[in-house]
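Regression test case RT-17, inverse folding.

Input:
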């Protein structure tokens, strides 16, 4: 039995070796095909005309347009902020003028009321006869006139 086991082992080894050689040959064929396709692709890529200058020109214009747009946005933001600040100052100035006018009108009205009050007090103080006795004073004046 020992001989059959050795023969089986050798047959298995031979079979494995032939299978390994077949796989290596297939791998070599696949790698060879891959190598040829990479070389063919590289050759076609190198033989095509270059458009580098055209693409670089588009990049330059895009970059310039981006900077221009950024500058316009920055200038717009700054001028908008300045306008808003100016508008707030003008509104505050108008409100202050309105309040000053209201205070002036209120002061004039108070002065007029005080003047009327003082005139009433003056007339009340300067009367020769109190208001309750005024009808009698009128009668006396008529008597004196007769």
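Golden output:
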């Amino acid at each position: 039995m020992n001989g059959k086991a050795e023969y089986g082992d050798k047959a298995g080894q031979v079979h494995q070796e032939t299978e390994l050689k077949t796989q290596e040959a297939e791998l070599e064929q696949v790698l060879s095909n891959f190598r040829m396709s990479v070389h063919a692709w590289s050759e076609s890529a190198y033989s095509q005309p270059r458009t580098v200058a055209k693409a670089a020109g588009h990049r330059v214009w895009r970059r310039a347009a981006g900077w221009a747009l950024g500058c316009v946005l920055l200038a717009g933001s700054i001028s908008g902020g300045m306008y808003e600040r100016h508008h707030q100052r003008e509104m505050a100035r108008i409100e202050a003028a309105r309040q000053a006018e209201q205070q002036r009108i209120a002061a004039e009205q108070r002065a007029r009321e005080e003047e009327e009050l003082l005139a009433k007090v003056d007339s009340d103080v300067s009367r020769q006869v109190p208001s309750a006795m005024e009808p009698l004073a009128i009668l006396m004046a008529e008597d004196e006139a007769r």
